[in-house]
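Repro:
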Amino acid sequence: MSMTVPDTNVRAATWFHVHLISDSTGETLSNLLKATAARFETAKPLEHVASLVRSHVQLDKVLARIEQAPGLVMYTIVDPGLRRRLEVKCAELQVPAISVLDPLLNAFADYLGLEQTLRAGAQYDLDEDYFRRIAAVDYTLAHDDGQLTWDLEAAEVVLVGVSRTSKTPTCMYLAHRGIKAANVPLVPTSPHPPELETLRNPLVVGLTASPLRLSQIRQSRLTNLAAEQDVSSYSDETAVREEIMKAKRLFAKHGWPVIDVTKRSVEETAAKILTLLSARRGGDINQA
């Protein structure tokens, strides 16, 4: 009779309650929790989200939930009275309550010598930055996958690459950061748009990846689409390698910066592009 030996390297997950309490959307708290929990391999937070908490009645319900499921409390609340009630209750329950933005806000106030605004959700005002992001998303959607190439000069970033190098998701991520981004696919059977040769305003970036990885991604896509795999070299590794080499020659010809996305997430690729864009603008990071 065989016996299964437990893997001593496998560690049990640590589940814990986390209450995210915000007088705004709570998006900041969610992002911070995700980033922090990722640093602890076995940490598995059970999220309890309470957004738009701006009255004592709403806070009563939140406090009741914390009492029922004690755990870490992360909050972004401007109103002093609500903050105080939350902090007192957490102290009674002996659970940590963290005002996650306080260190940043205090540092900004000390450095700038300015007072903080006490208005919840101030970052979501319909200001110039908001409308810039909306315009960027509209532009990016209209210029996805080689559309409207005659209008590429209006872009801030143009991504160029063969199929499945994450051009579209990277452009959309940039658009939500307020960057007008377009992308142009390089297709083996068609010449690239001539407009690419004469662009002056946009930052043109070439995206590439390892032939093996691209071949695997394309094979998976063909399978999902139930495509006839024997009628196309779309996923053939040799053909993919030739595509990539041809693309690299184009990038080198024009001196475009190149990013290998093989082991990069969309966020990491976008961060690299924003760094390149900032450097091109002479360090002006306000637009990025």
